[in-house]
Design a protein that fits this description.
globular; mainly alpha; single chain
Length: 117
């Protein structure tokens, strides 16, 4: 099983190296990586959110800022909320929090449906 895991990691590294050809922008690479991330590939919301954030090359602070409307912190999610969501210790968020998280991570709210039924 360890060998299969190692082979999968090597093939993933090779495919990402091919995408990182000279002259390819970081934004283009991010879009390609993000296109490969589907919420159905994950069993837990925190794994999905972390994968999306990393594919977008964002920090947790970037997620907080992206979730705000008009640079008003009261309209976004806080850093502790993002950290708790990605660690899996937040529990089930309310609808308003899910909307803010979706805005911060740049994904449709519908992507959270399978995690919170």
């Amino acid at each position: 099983m360890e060998r299969a895991h190692t082979e999968a990691r090597v093939s993933e590294t090779e495919s990402r190296a091919k995408m990182a050809e000279p002259g390819t922008s970081l934004a283009a690479i991010s879009r390609k990586w993000l296109a490969e991330i589907s919420p159905t590939d994950f069993t837990h919301c925190h794994e999905y959110l972390a994968a999306v954030r990393l594919a977008r090359h964002m920090s947790k602070i970037d997620v907080c800022r992206a979730s705000q409307v008009g640079n008003d912190p009261a309209t976004g999610v806080s850093l502790p909320t993002v950290s708790k969501m990605e660690s899996g210790s937040y529990g089930e968020p309310g609808f308003r929090t899910m909307v803010r998280l979706a805005r911060g991570y740049g994904v449709p709210v519908a992507n959270f449906e399978q995690f919170f039924k």
